[in-house]
Write a structure and sequence with these properties.
Elements lengths: L3 H10 L4 H10 L3 H8 L9 E5 L9 H18 L4 E6 L5 H14 L3 E4 L6 H10 L4 E5 L8 E8 L7 H11 L13 H7 L2 E3 L2 H12 L11 E5 L6 H11 L3 E4 L21 H14 L3 E5 L6 E6 L5 E4 L1 H19 L7 E5 L6 H8 L2 E5 L3 H13 L6 E6 L3 E3 L9 H17 L4 H12 L1 E10 L2 H17 L4 E2 L2 E8 L13 E5 L4 E6 L5 E10 L2 H18 L3
Parallel strand pairs: 2-3, 2-4, 3-6, 7-8, 7-9, 12-13, 12-14
Antiparallel strand pairs: 1-5, 4-5, 9-10, 10-11, 14-15, 16-21, 17-18, 18-19, 19-20, 20-21
Helix pairs in contact: 1-2, 4-5, 4-7, 9-10, 12-13, 12-16
Length: 558
């Protein structure tokens, strides 16, 4: 068997976590299972690690965590960064264990580790990095992935996920280490006693929530009736703290999803983008009849919402719809309040809705587009701050339910998004409108921009090669017609000069104003296809997206 020697090494050395050796004993005669665990090192991408929890080099476990942290420690020491690192985790399985193991490695390398004493959101970790003056940050989370995943996000001293350049340096440092002997370790309790591992004070989280509240337009929300679900994740404490300080008193938390649980028993795929995750809360809405239902993902950086549909039910608001809704709301209220800065800037991504463009034009806002990933939006905030004009940044969003209206953190922030959604719902209610009415008004004003996402999963080593083959074929065989419409322009973000960092993304713009984009996911074994169409009705735009989706289905059979 190709990986027998590596398997034997792990069976002999991975005994600190008995779950790992038990797993290897179970699969050691299954060639495919062993291959999947050892055919590669778990990839350290621009956001860090993410993978299935388990035994092997291609899994999330204490040994992959230690090795990655040793590389990070080498990078911090070599670059002369502050020898402090903030660490947080959400409700994921082994999240607390992985956080403690990272802290042990950092302390052994002369770097003080500051840990949140309980699970807290990703944006609270981004906040803590700057709040505590750290050289880096680590958040142990797999965001919205299924329960079998965990991850390890790395943040720079600016509170933003590390840059491409920094990620390359950390990856090079990681490559100098093995899994068992190279990483330095100290005893956890001894490090706590010595002060090289410390708890992040509660004041840090409280000040984070205050920083969010400082961004309020200030509309009265006391009459708002809300259903909220943290999807068994980390959002409950900061979101309840926020709502209490805002004066939202009519809050019903979905009981089945209130307490942290990394198994996510009611929604195996805890992603507020999909109806399945929100279904339990939607059933509760039928009994409670709120003005707004909100769900945050396990690490509370994404927010989903549902609003009354006017027919006795509730309709989910898409990520693009919420993005343009909040963008428009922020612009109109800041202009009305006299708080719109000079030369305002908004930021979104290349795969997010084109409707942001006419909205920005209406309000005189400069709209910047970045690659997919909120880290690139965070970088734009950092550039404005370096120029001495961070106040110019007013809003950023991505279609995958990420929103941010201030520079207090450098990542998407669902606590901030909850505040904005509540404010917008209350403001529109005062105008006699629901948030759905507001979305429909935007469609009528700017055109029916409709978006859809298709994901194609390719598991294991063979799946990785299949994805590479599909992207290579698309580059070699450029289509002239898609879904019956001529292709006006093709942009290859990997090979063309776009003014953005190189990325494995293909964009097709059609003669009817529609857009199709193909991008392999950076965190899951998937190719994602983003569909966008504009027409004179929702039905017409949706039909164009469906036609383009059928074309994409054919491409993925290659």
């Amino acid at each position: 068997m190709q990986y027998q020697q590596t398997l034997d090494l792990w069976l002999a050395r991975a005994g600190e976590d008995p779950d790992l050796t038990a797993e290897l004993e179970t699969v050691k005669t299954d060639t495919d299972a062993v291959t999947d665990r050892f055919y590669r090192d778990l990839e350290f991408g621009t956001g860090g690690l993410r993978g299935v929890i388990g035994a092997g080099t291609n899994r999330m476990n204490i040994y992959t965590i230690r090795r990655a942290t040793q590389g990070l420690a080498d990078y911090i020491n070599a670059e002369g960064l502050p020898k402090k690192v903030a660490i947080g985790h959400d409700s994921r399985i082994k999240g607390e264990l992985f956080s403690r193991e990272a802290a042990r490695v950092l302390a052994a390398n002369g770097i003080t580790a500051y840990l949140y004493p309980r699970l807290e959101p990703t944006p609270a970790l981004s906040w803590a990095v700057r709040y505590l003056g750290c050289g880096a940050g680590i958040c142990v989370t797999a965001s919205h992935n299924p329960a079998k995943y965990n991850g390890y996000k790395v943040y720079g001293a600016d509170g933003c996920q590390i840059t491409l350049e920094a990620a390359a340096k950390v990856l090079a440092a990681i490559g100098q280490h093995d899994y068992f002997d190279s990483p330095k370790l100290v005893d956890y309790d001894e490090a706590v006693a010595a002060g090289t591992i410390q708890a992040i004070p509660d004041r840090c989280l409280s000040d984070f929530v205050d920083a969010v509240l400082a961004l309020r337009p200030g509309n009265d929300v006391s009459k708002l009736k809300l259903v909220y679900t943290p999807l068994n994740g980390s959002g409950l404490e900061p979101v309840r703290m926020l709502l209490d300080r805002m004066g939202v008193t009519q809050v019903t938390v979905v009981p089945e999803q209130e307490k942290p649980d990394g198994n996510f028993p009611t929604c195996p795929y805890p992603n507020p983008e999909i109806r399945e995750a929100m279904e339990t809360g939607l059933r509760l809405c039928d009994a409670v009849h709120p003005d707004l239902m909100i769900g945050t993902d396990p690490d509370c950086d994404r927010m989903g919402a549902a609003v009354p549909d006017g027919q006795g039910g509730y309709r989910l608001i898409t990520g693009n719809e919420m993005g343009v809704l909040l963008f428009d709301y922020i612009c109109r209220t800041r202009l009305a309040n006299g708080t719109m800065p000079k030369d305002p800037v908004a930021v979104t991504t290349i795969v997010s809705t084109d409707m942001a463009t006419p909205i920005a034009k209406k309000y005189g806002v400069e709209l910047r587009r970045t690659l997919t990933g909120f880290k690139f939006i965070g970088e734009q905030i950092g550039r404005l701050e370096a120029e001495g004009h961070v106040e110019r940044y007013i809003f950023g969003f991505e279609e995958s339910y990420g929103y941010l209206s201030g520079g207090h953190v450098r990542d998407k922030d669902a606590v901030n998004a909850v505040m904005l959604a509540c404010e917008a719902a209350a403001w529109y209610a005062a105008q006699g409108m629901s948030l759905l009415d507001a979305v429909n008004a935007l469609y009528k004003e700017f055109g029916f921009y409709r978006n859809a996402l298709k994901s194609y999963t390719f598991e294991g080593e063979s799946g990785m090669h299949t994805m590479q083959g599909i992207m290579a074929k698309l580059r070699a065989e450029v289509p002239f017609v898609i879904a019956g419409y001529g292709v006006d322009k093709v942009v290859d973000y990997q090979n063309d000069d776009t003014g953005l960092p190189k990325a494995d993304v293909l964009e097709y713009r059609l003669e009817n104003g529609a857009k199709l984009m193909v991008r392999p996911s950076g965190t899951e074994p998937k190719i994602k296809v983003y569909l966008s169409a504009v027409a004179d009705s929702e039905a017409a735009a949706d039909a164009i997206n469906e036609q383009m989706g059928s074309t994409a289905d054919g491409w993925m059979q290659a």
